[in-house]
Design brief:
28% strand; three-stranded antiparallel sheet; 169 residues; alpha+beta
C-alpha cells in the first residue's frame, strides 16, 4: 500500500511554552495530529488510516524545532468492510483474481514475530525511529562531550550543515 510522509511542525513562537510543558504539549501534538489524520481518512476515503508517528524536538543544528514525522497509509480499512481496487490493483476487483491472490498469499504459513522487548518500549521506539528519518546528529559527528559544562560539540553535517555546540539534557 502506498504511504505518505506527513510532518506536523509547531510554530517556533511556542518553543518556550513547550520547553516548560513538554509532556502536556507533546500529548496535545500527538492527539491533534492523530485526530486530523483519522478524520481526513474517514471523510475523504471512508476508511481508517494506519499511522506511525515519531516526535523530533530539534533541528539539524540542534535548535528547538518541535515536529512529528508521521508515516500514513494511502488507504485503509473501509468503514463498510469492503476493499477498493484502484490503479494497478483494479484487476483484483474480479472475484477470481482476488481469490487467486488470497490463495497465493496463504500457501505458506504466516509467521508473526512477537515478544516482550528486552530493553523496554523506549528502546523499540528508538529502533523504529531510526528507520523513519535520519537523526539530527549522528555519532560520527560528535567531536566532544563535556559533562562538566553539559555541552556537546559536533562537526558539520555532510549536507552542508554547520558545526554546532548544544546543551545536554
Amino acid at each position: 500500500m502506498p504511504h505518505f510522509h506527513i510532518v506536523f511542525t509547531l510554530p517556533h513562537a511556542l518553543n518556550s511554552l513547550i520547553r516548560q510543558n513538554q509532556a502536556r504539549c507533546y500529548d496535545l501534538l500527538f492527539f491533534c495530529a492523530a485526530v486530523t489524520l483519522l478524520e481526513f481518512g474517514r471523510r475523504e476515503l471512508q476508511a481508517q488510516l494506519g499511522i506511525t508517528t515519531v516526535l523530533h524536538s530539534w533541528s539539524q543544528t540542534l535548535l528547538d524545532h518541535y515536529h512529528l514525522h508521521c508515516i500514513v497509509t494511502g488507504g485503509g480499512l473501509r468503514e463498510d468492510g469492503k476493499l477498493e481496487f484502484h490503479g494497478q490493483l483494479q484487476p483484483l476487483a474480479a472475484p477470481a483474481a482476488f481469490g487467486q491472490l488470497i490463495r497465493q498469499a496463504t500457501r505458506k504459513k504466516w509467521v508473526v514475530y512477537a515478544k516482550r522487548p528486552f530493553a523496554g518500549p523506549k528502546v523499540v521506539l528508538a529502533y523504529l525511529a531510526r528507520y523513519t528519518h535520519r537523526v539530527g546528529i549522528t555519532n560520527h559527528r560528535i567531536l566532544d562531550v563535556d559533562k562538566t559544562t553539559g555541552t556537546v560539540r559536533a562537526a558539520p553535517s555532510s549536507n552542508g550543515g554547520v558545526s554546532v555546540m548544544a546543551a545536554l539534557g
